[in-house]
Design a protein that fits this description.
Oligomer: single chain
Number of helices: 7
Largest sheet: 5 strands, mixed
Radius of gyration: 15 Å
Strand order of the largest sheet: 1-2-5-3-4
Structural class: alpha/beta
Helix content: 25-40%
Low-confidence stretches: 146-163
Order of helices and strands: EEHEHEHEHHHH
Strand content: 5-15%
Mean pLDDT: 88
């Protein structure tokens, strides 16, 4: 089973999982997997369709929400929030390193909790998102008519050094 870390009572994040990790993930009590990695990023990456089929074979729900690390936008965070809200049971989200999944979580959490608390929770889980502070603060208190909320495709310009 891949190493995973807990972000909150419901969500844990992990680096890329393999097909043979899925039985242990199910045994660990997870009920839903969220894949945040697009297909084809690396030659050794398992295909999402195969992961989804194996997850279902072990009784897990599977959501594929691919995002590109340096192009995460408000719509991506909204979709991740929606997937978490609809997910049953404990959720394991994964990408290449777990950073993308953590970033999506943090952007949603910043709308509901103090940014310092969100950053501290991410740091405790091993993810330094301090470079995202401006984006998290924008998510926390968006200005009326802010471009990132009103223009389709307008990104949050998430720091390009995040390669999760």
């Amino acid at each position: 089973m891949p190493h995973y870390t807990k972000l909150d009572d419901r969500l844990s994040v992990a680096p890329q999982i393999a097909l043979d990790d899925i039985p242990a993930i199910a045994e660990a009590g997870f009920a839903t997997l969220i894949g945040n990695r697009p297909d084809g990023e690396a030659e050794d990456q398992p295909e999402t369709a195969a992961l989804a089929a194996e997850a279902r074979r072990h009784g897990l729900a599977f959501v594929h929400q691919p995002v590109v690390a340096n192009a995460i936008d408000t719509r991506d965070a909204d979709a991740f929030d929606a997937a978490l809200a609809q997910a049953r049971g404990p959720v394991l989200a994964f990408c290449r390193t777990g950073t993308r999944s953590t970033t999506l979580w943090a952007l949603g959490q910043a709308r509901r909790r103090p940014v310092d608390d969100v950053l501290a929770d991410a740091q405790r889980a091993g993810y330094d998102l301090s470079a995202l502070r401006p984006e998290l603060e924008t998510a926390a208190a968006p200005a009326p008519g802010a471009a990132s909320r009103d223009v389709p495709g307008a990104g949050l310009a998430v720091a390009g050094n995040l390669h999760g």
